[in-house]
Design goal:
It is found in: Cell membrane. This is EAL domain-containing protein. This protein is of the alpha/beta class. It contains 11 helices and 9 strands. The protein binds ligand C2E and magnesium ion (3 copies). One magnesium ion binds next to loops.
Length: about 280
């Protein structure tokens, strides 16, 4: 009987894997179609200077609603894209759309908006190609590199680290800013902060939540703010949803923020309304 039970378990496990695999294959097939048919959209989430009460820039975030699968969250389809070689075409959609929109929005603005785009670790495998492509798209759209920012996570720094550093150095020399997204959630050592080409730390929203009740969260947020100041890095908090979180951050001299308190990610037309 015991043997039979184990056998069943094994089959069950295999089935589970193949269901997962089929799901991924389905997402991949639909994603290919969506890219071809231009069904992927770019949304924009404002970045705010809370001291000046002004929008300083936007982050581009991809959105996909499929006819069959419905709304697929970016975390999900980006993971599939990374595994299937679709990350570059997706990234191009984000880059080209966002760069041309922000260039347009900046016409006649006294303080131009900066644009942040999320880059995936996979893209750093070919640093020369990446640097060339970024420069080309910025030049084509007419967006100054000084108004462009790359968001990467700590895991990107661990992955292909030599190539990644080379690419980041090239991009930074060109005038682009490099920002560490979801800072504090990775496993990398802090020593990279003094050697790597980094301009900015983005405090992960998990540390901003319950900042009032959870003493360790507020302690971590404060520590990151102090660390950034000591290293002369820019610091921004993500996931600010409540007034008390904003007040806490301002009291700790962190004025740059992003979150639902100010605005959710919105489509281009909606962002134009916010600017207008
Ligand atoms: P991320 O870059 O850390 O983006 C922040 C995520 O938090 C976004 O989720 C945003 O909608 C959400 N968010 C912003 N403010 C708040 C808030 O106040 N409260 C809460 N609860 N959430 C907030 P989204 O758009 O679902 O994106 C998830 C992740 O997918 C992004 O995390 C990023 O890692 C990835 N992603 C999105 N677009 C791209 C892209 O074009 N390329 C790459 N490589 N990754 C992307
Ligand atoms: Mg980001
Ligand atoms: Mg983040
Ligand atoms: Mg994230």
């Amino acid at each position: 009987v015991a043997k039979k039970k184990d056998g069943n378990k094994a089959i069950f496990y295999d089935e589970k894997i193949s269901i997962e695999k089929n799901k991924k294959l389905r997402i991949e097939a639909r994603l290919r179609k969506a890219i071809k048919n231009k069904q992927i959209e770019v949304y924009y989430q404002p970045k705010i200077d809370a001291k000046k009460d002004k929008m300083t820039g936007v982050e581009a975030l991809l959105r996909w609603t499929d006819d069959e699968l419905g709304f697929v969250p970016p975390d999900k389809f980006i993971a599939v894209a990374e595994e299937t070689g679709l990350i570059n075409p997706l990234w191009e959609i984000a880059m080209k759309n966002a760069c041309s929109k922000v260039t347009k929005w900046n016409e006649g603005r006294v303080e131009p908006l900066s644009l942040a785009v999320n880059f995936s670790a996979k893209q750093f495998q070919d640093p020369c190609y990446l640097v060339r492509q970024v420069r080309e798209i910025l030049a084509d759209c007419g967006l100054a590199p000084e108004h462009f920012e790359i968001e990467i996570t700590e895991s990107t720094l661990l992955f292909n680290s030599k190539e990644t550093i080379r690419a980041l150095k090239g991009l930074q020399e060109y005038g682009i800013s490099i920002s560490i997204d979801d800072f504090g959630t990775g496993y990398s050592s802090l020593s990279y902060l003094k050697t790597l080409p980094i301009n900015s730390l983005k405090i992960d929203r998990s540390f901003i939540q319950d900042i009032q009740e959870d003493h360790s969260n507020s302690e971590i947020a404060e520590t990151v703010i102090h660390l950034a100041r000591g290293l002369r890095l820019h610091v921004i908090a993500e996931g600010v949803e409540e007034e008390y979180q904003k007040e806490f951050l301002m009291k700790n001299d962190c004025y740059h923020m992003q979150g639902y308190l100010f605005s959710k990610p919105v489509c281009a037309e909606e962002l134009e309304r916010l600017l207008g």
